[in-house]
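F.,

This is the one I mentioned.
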């Protein structure tokens, strides 16, 4: 057995080691970042990260470098971050699409929930139900009644099979018990263009693509999917107001980092993003975003809710990629 003096020596050495590690970790966090941070994007527009980068660069005296990797619908971006060093210097601009990819591409080279860690939600984007003006419905209730009276005859456009605009419409179909036909396009712009042309009757569009056409009267907005009314279309009621609480679904952008990134570093990134976001409110709202500040835990719960919801609708609607 170890002598009392030897046991005391071992204990002191271990305590000193833990203290030194804690001090080093605290110093690292206090100094973060000491070099440029890489912000990896999938196919999403770069407006939000560019605006955020300007403010964080002022705060940190370090650059936030945007690295756009749109390949494979975001798989390349997710894989890049998942395999980066877990030191806080590589971020993914996460979105609902990354949660969906996991369900539709079983052989992707990383696991979103296992290989990436949540940091913070930055903004949500409501989906707006927009109709061609020829559709005889002035409200969501009237649209539901019309669809129920003409099962399978109304067509809705999406940005593609398995995209968030497809899935949110399937959630609505289930909640409203309507049969409307899916027409998949290659991207939001193409989907909205055919609604504008009257080739399809409606779409659930992200705000950025639909709002300009609503404001000119070329499209009619009848509802938004967010829990509260959109700042850019305050006169348009929500799904919840229309009685469809289960269609409280929004697009979103957040930050994920490689799994095993030290929690102290994650907390620092969360704190600094939340610090500068209010300075961007006006510009983000004008662009169709709803700026959102969260704790790490709240963002993690938010993502888990989306994960569960998308898993359910993909299975029940038998959504598959050919």
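My design for it:
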């Amino acid at each position: 057995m170890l002598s009392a003096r030897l046991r005391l020596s071992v204990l002191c050495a271990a305590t000193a080691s833990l203290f030194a590690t804690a001090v080093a970790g605290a110093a690292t966090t206090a100094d973060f970042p000491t070099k440029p941070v890489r912000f990896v994007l999938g196919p999403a527009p770069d407006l939000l990260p560019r605006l955020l980068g300007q403010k964080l660069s002022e705060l940190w005296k370090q650059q936030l470098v945007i690295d756009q990797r749109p390949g494979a619908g975001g798989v390349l971006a997710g894989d890049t971050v998942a395999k980066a060093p877990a030191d806080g210097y590589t971020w993914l601009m996460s979105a609902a699409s990354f949660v969906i990819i996991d369900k539709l591409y079983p052989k992707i080279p990383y696991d979103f929930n296992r290989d990436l860690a949540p940091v913070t939600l930055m903004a949500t984007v409501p989906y707006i139900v927009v109709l061609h003006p020829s559709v005889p419905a002035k409200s969501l209730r009237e649209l539901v009644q019309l669809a129920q009276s003409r099962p399978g005859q109304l067509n809705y456009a999406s940005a593609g099979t398995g995209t968030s605009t497809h899935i949110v419409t399937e959630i609505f179909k289930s909640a409203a018990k309507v049969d409307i036909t899916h027409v998949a396009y290659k991207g939001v712009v193409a989907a909205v263009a055919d609604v504008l042309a009257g080739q399809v009757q409606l779409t659930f569009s992200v705000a950025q693509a639909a709002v300009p056409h609503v404001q000119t009267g070329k499209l009619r907005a009848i509802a938004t999917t967010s829990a509260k009314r959109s700042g850019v279309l305050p006169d348009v009621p929500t799904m919840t107001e229309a009685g469809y609480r289960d269609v409280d679904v929004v697009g979103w952008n957040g930050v994920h980092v490689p799994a095993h990134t030290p929690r102290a570093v994650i907390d620092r990134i969360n704190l600094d993003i939340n610090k500068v976001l209010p300075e961007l409110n006006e510009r983000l709202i004008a662009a169709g975003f709803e700026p959102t500040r969260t704790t790490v835990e709240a963002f993690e719960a938010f993502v888990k809710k989306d994960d569960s919801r998308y898993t359910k609708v993909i299975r029940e609607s038998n959504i598959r990629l050919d």
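The mean pLDDT is 90.

Talk soon.
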